[in-house]
Amino acid sequence: MWLSLTEYSNKHKVSISTLRRKIKASEIEFRLDEGRYMILDSDEASPLHHSVVSSVQSSEAPRPSLKSESFSDSGTSKESGESVITAANRLLADLKKAYTQVLQDKEEHISELKEEISDLKTLIKVLESENDRLRRGSSSMNSLDM
């Protein structure tokens, strides 16, 4: 039977973040169903459940030394730190791609504007020469009238 993360978490008393770590490490069987992770839950207790139960039972026993606690915490921090780095690298790659696209679009726009400026300069020259021709024709007409 396939359960959502929340259902599995509630049934087996496992945190959702632990389930996500197990999914990322491919330590449990899962599938992606319409954007939601589903975890296979067999009738017998799953291997994940056994490891969680044994860690709960061991936590009821005398607590380990501070050194081993900090070591296990740093392992968890390292895993989440790696996932943060992976996500940051993915975002950085996406930003670079978007920035490159923006730069290409700007270059194309600049090229189009340069062409338009060239066309406008040509038009200005044509209009100025036409204006000069009309002035010369008008001044010669004025001299004939006198």
Notes on the structure:
The chain is mainly alpha-helical. It has a domain at 1-52: Orthogonal Bundle (Arc Repressor Mutant, subunit A), CATH 1.10.10. It contains four helices and three strands; from the N terminus they run βααββαα. Strands 1-3-2 form a three-stranded antiparallel beta sheet. β2 and β3 (36-40) form a beta hairpin.
Range of helix content: over 70%
H and E order: EHHEEHH
Order of strands, widest sheet: 1-3-2
Radius of gyration: 37 Å
Report the principal-axis shape.
rod-shaped
| Alpha-beta classification | mainly alpha
* CATH architect. name of the domain at 1-52: Orthogonal Bundle
Poorly predicted sequence stretches spanning 5 or more consecutive residues: 49-74
Mean pLDDT: 77
The count of strands amounts to: 3
Question: Can you summarize this structure?
Answer:
The protein is rod-shaped.
